[in-house]
Amino acid sequence: MSRFDALRQKKYLSRIIIFGCISACVPIILIGSVYYHFAMKSAMENIVNDAKASLLISKDRVERIFQNLELDSYSIASSPIVTNSMYDQDFTNNVLGHGEINEMLDKKKNSNDFIVDIVYYNSKAEGAISNNYGYIPERFYKDNQDLRTAMSWEASSKWGYLPYSGKKGYLTFVRQLPVVNGNNKNLGALLIHADTREIAKYIDSPTVESVLILGPQQEVLLRTGEYGVFDNMSAAHFMQTIRGIEDSSGSFFQDEVLYTYLKTSFDRTYISMIPQKEIVSSISWIRSFVIITVTFFFVLSILLTLLTSFNVYKPIRRLMHLGKSLNSSNAKSIHTNEISFIEQCMSYLKQQSDQLIHDVDELKPVLKERFFQQLVEESYVNDKLIRSHHQIHEIMSHRSYLVLVVTIGDLHKDRRFSSNDRAIIAFMMKNVMNELLVKVDRFQGEVIQDSQNRAVAVIFSDEELSASELLDKVMEFGQLIVESIQHYLKLSAFVGIGRVHSSFTDISSSYREALLALQNRTYLESVSVINAEEAQPVKKHGNYYYPSHLKQSVVTALLNGDLSTAKSNLSEYVRALRASESYIVITHGYFTLLHSLMESLEQQDTVAYVELIEHDLIGQLKERQTPGEVYDWYVYELFPLFQQIRNRKSNVASAIQLVVQYIHNHIYDDILLTHIAEIVDMSPSYLSRLFKKEKGVQFLEYVQECKIKEASRLMDETGMSIGEIASKIGYSERNLTRMFQKHTHMTPGQYRTKQREFVK
Question: Where would I find the HTH araC/xylS-type domain in this sequence (predicted)?
Answer without folding.
Answer: 657-754
